[in-house]
Design goal:
heterodimer; A: about 375 residues; mainly alpha; 4 domains; 20 helices; B: alpha+beta; Alpha-Beta Plaits; two-stranded antiparallel ribbon; 2 helices; flat; YCII (chain B); Dimeric_a/b-barrel (chain B); YCII-related domain-containing protein (chain B); RNA_pol_sigma70_r4_t2 (chain A); RNA polymerase sigma factor (chain A)
Chain lengths: ~375, ~140
């Protein structure tokens, strides 16, 4: 049985059940039951239409479960309603499911968990392992999330931006435990991009592909390797080519957004055969675009680094001076620019300070090593 | 979406408002206190925010390497150690503010006369994973 195929069908099947009137939690249980049956039946008797098979099986499971409960009248209503499939397409059903799982009434962690469970078809155990929490905790998080969206009507248009934020969060969590969240985020974004024509969905997909392409070079035995020192021969050129193609098609639509601009920056890095050949002037221009789209101080911090490369460290420090010193990674950027400017003592001091403020262990170790390098 | 360690100290924390040692409470007050802590942990399990919680014995020992082929050296316990950890809870919350709110709730566990202890808890963020996208 093709697990990838089955998982790619899951959201559409779930979406169809919910549109037919099943409440979300019951629909999800029914789809899981149908998948279990598929595992048993398909190897012996492969279906001609896997999705049709799953919809039929899941709907039957749902009706069985409903019958088992007391909601007899409700079931009869639903049976009556069944033949009416409505005008919605499968792509719409999948899309509605994404909207539902990223509904604004959910907290980010709930939206992430529900998306991975209902759209991604991951098990609760896998999601718990990926986020390093007990399985029981994750089960509760998911079940509360289902309750929260229980009353949300399925036919209301959702906001693509909320879905993209959830997928971005999943991707950025990276790789921990048995589940490759970055790969899963790419799979889900690809699926979404297939169902909706939206330049920012394409932008996010391109951004993910371009970053994922560098994964093999980003760490060395657990040590963080900065972009300039990465072994570019390890970059995945197939992913880069795909990312660039997806991005160009999106940019051609002339509806620029945050993710497209971020992807454009990633593409310029990917395009440089060596770090010294990076087109920093263009990167600064893209950061200017990005700053217009989001008033994020993090963007302006990254812009200061790019200015430092394009116009020299003094210009970078000048751009940095306009920003708030309490920003995360401010002292790390300051350290880097001071070293480039030849002031090793100030740089070393700032690297120590930056290490103390790092929000993850890999970054702290990297910054500590930078300080040690300058002090020796 | 970040994890926080809530540390409870036997010693070393600033004095709480309701600062009466447990051995001077009534048995019912002790029961109520423990019940409060257990209920708190159970509640966090249902909200999907609980990661781990453990209590520690009062006495520990210092231990260190003493060279190839030699047994570890132990020392202590040192009665004068200023800071003594009583236990911890790890929570996983959407925001820092939520973590503070939960810590404050835990600190309100009842003590003498059934009144909140207002115990000082130490909150420490756990390192997260390095983000994939940085530039």
């Amino acid at each position: 049985m093709d697990e990838a195929l089955v998982r790619s069908l899951t959201p559409a099947v779930l979406g169809i059940l919910v549109r037919r009137g099943a409440d979300f939690a019951a629909a999800e249980d029914a789809v899981q039951d149908a998948l279990v049956e598929a595992v048993r039946v398909w190897p012996v008797d492969p279906p001609r239409d896997p999705k049709g098979w799953l919809v039929t099986a899941a709907w039957r499971k749902f009706l069985d479960a409903t019958r088992a409960e007391t909601a007899r009248r409700r079931r009869e209503d639903l049976v009556d309603a069944e033949p009416e499939q409505g005008p919605a397409s499968d792509a719409d059903d999948t899309l509605q499911l994404y909207f539902l799982c990223a509904h604004p009434s959910l907290t980010p962690s709930s939206a992430v968990a529900l998306t991975l469970r209902a759209v991604g078809g991951l098990t609760t155990r896998q999601i718990a392992q990926a986020y390093l929490v007990p399985e029981a905790t994750m089960a509760q998080r998911i079940s509360r999330a289902k309750k929260t969206i229980g009353d949300v009507r399925f036919d209301q248009p959702g906001d693509v931006a909320t879905v993209l934020r959830v997928l971005y969060l999943v991707f950025n969590e990276g790789y921990s435990g048995d589940v490759d969240l970055a790969a899963e985020a790419i799979r889900l974004t690809r699926l979404l991009a297939g169902g909706i024509d939206h330049p920012e969905v394409a932008g996010l997909l391109a951004l993910m592909l371009l970053h994922h392409a560098r994964r093999a070079s980003r760490t060395d035995g657990g040590r963080l390797v900065p972009l300039a020192e990465q072994d570019r021969a390890k970059w995945d050129t197939t992913l880069i080519a795909e990312g660039v193609e997806v991005l160009q098609a999106a940019l051609a639509r002339d509806r620029l957004g945050e993710f497209q601009a971020q992807a454009a920056i990633a593409a310029l890095h990917a395009d440089a055969p060596a770090a010294e050949e990076t087109d920093w002037v263009q990167i600064v221009e893209w950061y200017d675009e990005l700053a217009k789209l989001t008033d994020s101080p993090v963007v302006r911090l990254n812009r200061a680094v790019a200015v430092g490369e394009a116009d020299g460290p003094r210009a970078g420090l000048k751009a940095l001076a306009e920003l708030d010193e309490s920003l995360p990674r401010y002292s790390a950027v300051a350290a880097y620019l001071h070293e480039r400017d030849g002031d090793r003592r100030t740089a070393a001091k700032l690297y120590v300070e930056a290490a103390g403020k790092a929000s993850n262990l890999a970054e702290r170790e990297y910054l500590t090593r930078q300080a040690a390098r300058l002090n020796n | 979406m970040a994890k926080y360690l809530l540390l409870k100290h036997y010693r070393g924390a600033p004095a709480p408002a309701n600062d009466v040692p447990m051995d001077q409470w009534t048995p019912d007050e002790i029961t109520a206190h423990i019940q409060y802590m257990n209920d708190f942990a159970e509640k966090l399990k249902t909200t999907g925010e609980f990661v781990d919680g453990q209590a520690l014995e009062q006495e520990g020992t210092w231990v260190r390497y003493d060279g190839e082929g030699r047994p570890p050296v132990t020392d202590g316990p040192f009665a004068e150690t200023k800071d003594l950890i009583a236990g911890w809870m790890i929570i996983d919350t959407d925001t820092y503010e939520r973590a503070l709110e939960l810590a404050a709730e835990l600190s309100a566990a009842p003590g003498k006369d059934g009144k909140p202890i207002h115990e000082w808890l130490e909150i420490r963020p756990l390192y997260g994973s390095a983000p994939t996208i940085t530039e």
